[in-house]
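Example 3.2
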Amino acid sequence: MLRFLRIRNLAVIEAVEVEFEPGFNVLTGETGAGKSILVEAVGLLLGARASADLVRTGEAQATIEAIFDDPPTRVARAGHAPSMRSAGAGQAGARELIVRREISSQGRSRSFIDGALATAAALRDLSSRLVELHGQHEHQSLLDPLAHLPLLDEYAGLTTVAADVAAAWASVRTRREQLERSRMDAREKAARLDLIAFQLGEIEKAAPKPGEDEELASTRQVLASAERIQRLCQESYSALYDSDEAVLAGLGGVWKRVGELATIEPQFGPYVESRDGIKSQLEDLAFFLRSYADGIDASPGRLQEVEDRLALMERLKRKYGPTLQEVIDTGAALARERELLTSAGEGADALAKALEGATSTYLDLARGLSQRRRAAAVTFARELEALLAELAMARTRFEVRFNDGELPPEAWSERGIDQAEFFISPNPGEDLRPLARIVSGGELSRVMLALKTLAANDATGTPGSATPAGRGARTLIFDEVDAGIGGRVADVVGSRLQALGEQFQVLCITHLPQIAARGDAQFMIEKSVRGSRTVTRVERLDDAGRVEEVARMIGGASVTEQVRASARELLDAGSKRTRPTQARRAGRGTKSIP
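Structure, written as tokens:
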């Protein structure tokens, strides 16, 4: 669950902090205010490609930080064990995971998980475990029939079987290539082996690792500023912990006074409750500042070593890239080709027999997968039709259509021996037609939402049966899933998103008051001009603020008392219940960093 998000100097956002709740969180605001930038910030935290264009004009660096509650059933990754501090307002027993990403104005980026440098691959691993992000245009992927089989496999729990089929297909391809290589001319084979030996030797000698170039660039940046970093760390440590006027020492008196205030005014109670967590975080920061400064090797030799290694990576990328991962993939492909060429001496008969065996294995697995897919497709279609009926697409007919019989050998692939496409008829009396050629934008959004609801039900059971391990353990982010809809349809989409919020933490950017009114918590994103600069801020709305914002969404610039009355009615109808955390924090706006 995403509990806390801090953004500095990203696009039009100068500095904001947002503390999200479990359940259904809605983010609203005028078009262009910066709502989608929050979603983009989460994507960057989870490994999306960064660029210098994202850094706010005139600033040296953009920073995104987040605190996730990682369920205790998760296995910590080697080298990045999550903190075992209390998760505070998050899930009971969850581990606190702190993720930070820095993007420089030169386009370089560094990532940290619990204070330790992390690769983009480590961030993507987090993405697969903690967050599912659905951008503004993701539902357009449904228009590609190649995306349909994986969705069916996910629903039917066949992803592992599909992976086995893909592995068997890779074996078939390998055997085919070996057989083809066995027929290569001896002189041609020797020349090719010489070239492979040179290229593979160059890559293997360097032994690049995934993400190493990014880590080296980050390390170079640290070493080049080592003296300044050490000075800042030492000064900060002293101010926090080690001087006569240290912040931590002075906080004792502050907390004593706040405690007295809490006995008079209960609104101070939550701050007293968070005292130990704040103290723990400040102590952690102080000790991290000290250990980080002590761990920097500022010697010229270390900097030169990093520079030389980075230059080697750049040379390899120019020859075999352009990315380091492509260099690594090229090395693996060369090694595989060398193996094929050297094993070609087995003889055509032996290789043909091996190919026959690999093909038989592949077909056995692919046929089994095909049967299970076709059986699951019927249930999949009926359940999707039921969900679409709830989303104001009653009497919609849906079908997964497969190829007749097995595909011919030339059409086999890692997907198996099936081709499938979603067919739909949203209007009674109309024939089923390919999804890509018949649905409107609003219908496509609802089909995507229904598919995500099916996936959610598969993860936690039927709606309403959320388990402690399932509820809130994962965050679903929807960026304008309400595109192309309105009226009664918007209300039923809001109801479905609210139901998802009972099983997961849901963050939804919306322009529709019917959806915003159903949120457990609402945040307003607002853009303004301060001086000569554009500034975006994020504010958590209290009850009065929600009435005003929903009224704006209903009436636009003309907000009358009648519109406000409609907004109150919509909010009263939309809120099933008030969460304890919501009641406790009513009236508290999201902090804005000056």
